[in-house]
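Subject: Sanity check before I submit

Could someone independently write out the structure tokens for this chain? I want to compare against mine line by line before I put it in a report. The sequence has 136 residues.
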Amino acid sequence: MLIEARNQTCDAVVIADRSAHVRETLRRVLAQTQADCRVYEAANFREALRSVRSSGARLVLLDVELAMNQPAARLRRIIDGFPGLRVVVLLNEDLPEYRRAIADRWGYPCVGKEHAESELPEALIAGPMTQSASHA
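---
Independent answer below. Compare away.
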């Protein structure tokens, strides 16, 4: 069943985080849980968009600070321009109020960077959220 979830969950993913250490940690977690997944890395939002366009990725692991540097409406328009694209926001400080704020602002699931090894696999298997429906 995990193999089925792997195949359905991830064909290509973009890890967008300023920290090379965080990107490497997430790459390792993906290698353990998503064996056939192609992983692309981006150190900023522009690189992330370029990688999504060129790779056809359907999942972006997006550093909260990269997300917060974009006006909410602009980020929503950009993401909605890629039908089927899922976003999981990576939190530096994993606090319930931050998770609520991200959910209220964009409707994206969150993963605490310090808990990525335990939370990321569950977030990937959870399947796509109906992001556009909640923020149309």
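---
OP: Matches mine. For the report I'm noting this point. The mean pLDDT is 82.
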